[in-house]
């Protein structure tokens, strides 16, 4: 489970078995968890987060999208 980024209480990561899916990132915190696609950034699913928090997480992912994609392709290849 490579952790790509820790920011504002969130851990952004992917599972080593995720290679069969399009690029995405899992988000986890004390409040909940979610999965966001990276191309384009969009919510796949979520549990425990409010709509407001999901919007905030989405903006955070958009802000760090290039870093997240670089980590994805660096780990899984193109």
Strand content: 25-35%
Termini, distance in Å?
Answer: 19 Å
Tell me the structural class: alpha+beta
- DSSP strand count: 5
Strand order in the largest sheet? 1-2-3-4-5
Mean pLDDT score, rounded? Answer: 96
Give the uncertain stretches in residue-range form: none
Query: What's the story with the biggest beta sheet?
Result: 5 strands, antiparallel
Order of helices and strands: EEEEEHH
- Radius of gyration in whole Å, from Cα? 11 Å
Overall shape: globular
The figure for the number of domains is: 1
Helix content: 25-40%
* Count of runs of 4 or more consecutive helical residues: 2
Overview in brief:
The model has no long low-confidence stretch (mean pLDDT 96). The chain is 32% helix and 35% strand. Strands 1-2-3-4-5 form a five-stranded antiparallel sheet, with helices on one face.
Structure overview:
- The structure is a single chain.
- The chain has 78 residues and is α+β, with helices and mostly antiparallel strands.
- It has one domain.
- 32% of the residues lie in helices and 35% in strands.
- It has two helices and five strands.
- The protein has a five-stranded antiparallel beta sheet with strand order 1-2-3-4-5, covered by helices on one side.
- Strand 3 and strand 4 form a beta hairpin.
- The mean pLDDT is 96.
